[in-house]
Amino acid sequence: MDVAISLLVLSSLSQLVAPQAATQIPFRPTVEVISGDVRIFSRETLRLGCSVPVSYKSGWTFWWFRGSEKLPQTGQNLTLWNVNLNESGKYSCQGLRDSLLGTRKTLKSLPVEIDVDGGWAMLQAPAHSVLVGETLKLTCHLRMRLPLHETILYKDGIEVVRQNGHSQDFYLTNATLLDEGMYSCRPSWDMRGRTHSVISVSTPVHVLEVLTRPLLEIENQSNFQRERRMKLICHVQYNTHGPAPPLYYYFYKANNRLGSASSNNYMWVRQAPGQYSCRATVPVLDLSRWSETRDFGSPQP
Ligand SMILES: *[C@@H]1O[C@H](CO)[C@@H](O)[C@H](O)[C@H]1NC(C)=O
Ligand SMILES: *[C@@H]1O[C@H](CO)[C@@H](O)[C@H](O)[C@H]1NC(C)=O
Ligand SMILES: *[C@@H]1O[C@H](CO)[C@@H](O)[C@H](O)[C@H]1NC(C)=O
Ligand SMILES: *[C@@H]1O[C@H](CO)[C@@H](O)[C@H](O)[C@H]1NC(C)=O
User: Fold this and answer.
1) Amino acid 156: pLDDT
2) pLDDT of residue 167
3) CATH for 215-296?
4) Atom of ligand 4 nearest to the CA of 220
5) In degrees to the nearest 10, what's the CA dihedral of 222, 272, 231, 276?
6) What contacts 262, CB < 8 A, 6 or more positions away?
7) What is the dotted CATH code of the domain comprising 21-116?
8) Is the CB of 220 under 6 A from ligand 4?
9) 76 lines ligand 1 (CB under 6 A)
10) Does the fold of domain 215-296 match that of domain 21-116?
11) Which among 177, 292, 296 is positioned nearest to 236, based on CA atoms?
């Protein structure tokens, strides 16, 4: 309802002010990598797509951006042929549709960073962070598709694994926070009786905990008239890929539970000195983490 009204207002204004005034479609498209990878060699080809709501398939044009620069292409899929080093950057897109009320635009997508590598070897790492316990897959590419002799993987400049033969893939199972770092690889190959090798530039790998240790915050609220209360807030970071199973919070005073499990990360309690803590759990994943205990209300120095 609100949208329709603001459209009418804007469209009558637009006749007075700017005939092309575009109104917003409250949808944020996403940029998808259709073929290629976010890290590619120069002179390779990459294709990106801009997603729009499935229920309105036709009548769209698209704007593509590299950083803040608008590109000339207007198709739903952006093909970058024979890429150049200067085509590295953050790509985003925006959809436009003509309607009776003028052109309407979606929000701009979040950017996808494309890294064009001019070297001879390249290490591809996951585009998103790896979660603790997952398997980290790293792939070492050589620009010339020659059979490899051996490939070495380095983390922060130190050799981690050495792999004989043609396989370009490294699998580091059961990732931990210590696996975070800058990775590079050195493939080697034999040609005319000699062994050659090149080293890639470093690629960052980020590792996140699924559930971080909670941090308990206590807000001492002094503005309640009848009963003085305080708010216990349990801060965690909860990282998943895809749908997140439910997360619950428990609050404790001197290790005695206050109330029942809640999907809210806060709880109001009567203002009282004591030892407070909280716990966050994801029962489906069998995860449970305690905060440190906080001492509330001990005499001020
Ligand atoms: C964009 O690419 C996707 C995936 O290859 C394809 O299904 C779609 O038809 C393409 N869109 C256009 C407008 O060519
Ligand atoms: C990128 O570099 C190539 C050759 O060096 C040049 O022809 C092209 O115009 C440049 N493109 C941009 C967007 O700067
Ligand atoms: C993964 O690592 C954790 C912590 O080091 C360990 O407790 C767990 O058993 C490991 N799991 C597997 C499948 O190796
Ligand atoms: C909390 O606030 C009350 C008054 O509003 C005050 O008397 C008390 O000292 C405060 N406690 C702490 C630990 O700040």
Assistant:
1) 97
2) 85
3) 2.60.40.10
4) 1
5) 150
6) 248, 249, 250
7) 2.60.40.10
8) yes
9) yes
10) yes
11) 292
> For the chain, which ranges sit under pLDDT 50?
1-20, 301
- At a CB cut-off of 8 Å and minimum separation 6, what does 72 contact? none
DSSP-derived secondary structure for 214-265? PEEEEEEE---SSS-EEEEEEE--B--SSSPPP-EEEEEETTEEEEEEESSS
Neighbours of 301 (CB within 10 A): 3
CA of 77 to the centre of ligand 1 (A): 6
How much is the pLDDT for 224?
58
Q: Among all ligands shown, which has an atom nearest to the Cα of 51?
A: 1
Q: Residue 189 is which amino acid?
A: W
106-125 pLDDT, tens digit per residue, is 999 999 999 999 999 999 99
| CB 201 within 8 Å of CB 232 | no
* Domain edges within the chain: 21-116, 119-208, 215-296
> The pTM is what?
0.74
User: Residue 228 has what pLDDT?
Assistant: 81
Tokens describing residue 183: 């990775």
CATH superfamily of 119-208: Immunoglobulins (2.60.40.10)
| Integer Cα distance of 192 and 112 in angstroms | 41
Give the per-residue pLDDT at 159: 97
**For residues 212 and 235, is the Cβ–Cβ distance under 8 A?**
no
Cα→Cα distances 237→180, 205, 212, 220, Å: 17, 19, 5, 23
- For the chain, the first-to-last Cα distance in angstroms comes to 58
Pick the residue whose CA is nearest to atom 9 on ligand 2: 86
Which is nearest to 210 in space by CA: 265, 288, 292, 136?
288
Strand partners, 183: 155, 203
